[in-house]
Amino acid sequence: MSEMRASSVTTSGTPQPTSVTGGSDREFNVKERSQLQQALRRFRRHRLAVASLVLLIFIVLLAFVGPLVWKYQYTDITPDNSQPPSLAHPFGTDSLGHDGFAQVLRGLQQSIKVALCIALVATTLGVVWGGISGYYRGLADSVLMRLADLILTIPAIALAAALGSTSGGAWWMIALILGGLSAPLVARAVRGVVLSLREQEFIEAARALGASDSRIILRHLVPNALAVVIVYATLLVAAGILAETALSYVGFGVQAPDTSLGLLITAAQSAVQTRPWLFYFPGLFIILIALTVNFIGDGLRDALDPRQTRQRR
Amino acid sequence: MLAYVIRRIFVSIPILIGSTILVFIMVKFSGDPLEPLKMRNPPAPRQTILNEEHRLGLDQPIHVQYLNWLKNLVLHGDFGPSVHSNTNIGHELGGRLVVSLRLVLISVLIALIFAVITGVVSAVKQYSATDYTFTFTGFLFLAMPTFWFAILLKSAAISYNQAIGTQTFFTIGDKSPFLTDDSAWGHVKDIAGHMILPTIVLGLVSYAAWSRFQRASMLEVLNSDYVRLARAKGLRPRRVLVRHALRTALIPLTTVTALDIAALLGSTIITERVFQWHGLGEFFLDSVGDHDANAMLGWLLISALIVILFNLVADLLYGVLDPRIRYE
């Protein structure tokens, strides 16, 4: 903001070039920072979270750019079968001669897609669900929250297996189902935030000024509830990737010939003793993703928590 | 207190009915249980298919099917016909419930004990090497897929058995098919032996989350004014820690444990599959594969009952932990 103002002043042809806000004419030599800038600063201080973010970006790039560059495709059958890791096959090969690295890259790509979609579906649905529930209260609230309670009494993986048994293993169907089943969690959290926000003075002021419901929700409630939602979305990515692997393991997730990290582990489970590399690498990547995402979520929670604004660091 | 328990049980009945309706609808849309029969080659006679439809009640509209199911369950304790005509769902569930419940209960108990200990130690020694170790392992277990760890543990146990040349760890099934030592003690030993690995797997998942949670709530309590007062009064540190701080810090964990039971039952399905237990998990996966609506509903009802039961226990525990709460 401050930079923009300063530059617009100079371009409009003011004789003296003004520097950034907070020049020598000001009492305090403090730079103006937007909320986003403050959050970013606080996030940067969380070293583990920043390192995790870098690692996660690297893994995502690997998953989506890697297959374009790597010499084998995940469907390719190479003449070397059951090879332990070597230079030609960094992650070894399976008994049919599929290159392990190409398979892990493809699995990684599918698992990341599923996990991101789960987070997207769950947060979108959850925000609307919890938002309506918290804002309108009354009957709508009771009905929506009882429905959330119902869904949360049933183990999600069981419901997903029952629903997914006819999906034919399309990755987006699995993402939709798991996302939908995680939505009540987000809805509960969002409802809590909205319930406490809607009683506050600035909402009252907006209403007194004649703002419509949709304006209050979109301009006042959503930005203030955003911190909670972002943190939830991050944690759902980690939960999503674990749920997808679990679902693939019981046979109701992504189906062959396509693959996912969960499916790769499932296929390798009978060969843990003989070809352990097939089993270790996909698992390692799941752990890496879930771990980094959890650390990022932790960092975000600290950075976005409004109670942390007591000091300008 | 008894009145409170009875009231709570009555309140949970609508939730039970609601979840059965939800699942009934979803199961009905999830697929045709008679598909294998219809796809059979050479084709099954039309009359056979019609008879099967009639036996399963599929020839009636969906709401009639549901009401019939509910009526038979309440009046006769009958879970309805299974796709496999010689299977009695209620009988199957009863036997498997014992197998799965002992796994769930013992791993919850062990996970709670360890979670409280490590959570408290972490909080008391905040930012020490011990704290960082516990925190790191907690995060690691949270990021690990259950079945990956389970398979790893199973394979390690098999390697160990082979190296030693004896059956130290049991890796398959919930009990041995036959025993040389047919005494009661022999059976107990056998069952306990089979439980070791699955309990570790199932317990670790919850342990990781709960220990993190216990650490956070313990830290909050330790920094509160009344704990400072207790210390200022000159009470022994141990007494402050256990009687004043820990008691309060256990309340949030109770809530989380009860909330996590549904997810834990989901993990049970996976753990049982890795170790090839004939428990509720296997029963559920089979029934999903067969599109066996009544079997799935039976399983759901049992797991919903377990969830509700755990929530009830959690509510009663609040009364023990927090003297302000009284159930009239």
From TrEMBL, chain A:
Topology within the bilayer: Multi-pass membrane protein
Signal peptide limits: none
Gene3D superfamilies, per the entry: MetI-like (1.10.3720.10)
A Pfam family matched in the record: OppC_N
Domain of life: Bacteria
Biased amino acid composition, Polar residues: 1-22
Domain called ABC transmembrane type-1: residue spans: 108-297
One GO term of the biological process aspect: protein transport
Transmembrane domains' residue ranges: 48-70, 112-132, 144-164, 170-190, 221-243, 277-297
Keywords noted in UniProt: Cell inner membrane, Cell membrane, Membrane, Peptide transport, Protein transport, Transmembrane, Transmembrane helix, Transport
Stated family: Belongs to the binding-protein-dependent transport system permease family. OppBC subfamily.
Protein name listed in UniProt: Oligopeptide transport system permease protein OppC
From TrEMBL, chain B:
Family: Belongs to the binding-protein-dependent transport system permease family.
Keywords, comma-separated and alphabetical: Cell membrane, Membrane, Transmembrane, Transmembrane helix, Transport
Organism of derivation: Planosporangium mesophilum
Topology of the protein relative to the lipid bilayer: Multi-pass membrane protein
Membrane-traversing stretches: 9-29, 103-124, 131-151, 191-210, 245-270, 296-321
PANTHER family: DIPEPTIDE TRANSPORT SYSTEM PERMEASE PROTEIN DPPB-RELATED (PTHR43163), DIPEPTIDE-TRANSPORT INTEGRAL MEMBRANE PROTEIN ABC TRANSPORTER DPPB-RELATED (PTHR43163:SF7)
This protein's name: Peptide ABC transporter permease
Pfam families, per the entry: BPD_transp_1, BPD_transp_1_N
GO cellular component: plasma membrane
Xref: InterPro entries: BPD_transp_1_N, MetI-like, MetI-like_sf
Major subcellular location class: membrane
One of the protein's GO biological processes: transmembrane transport
Domain of life: Bacteria
Domain ABC transmembrane type-1: 97-318
Subcellular location: Cell membrane
SUPFAM superfamilies from the UniProt entry: MetI-like
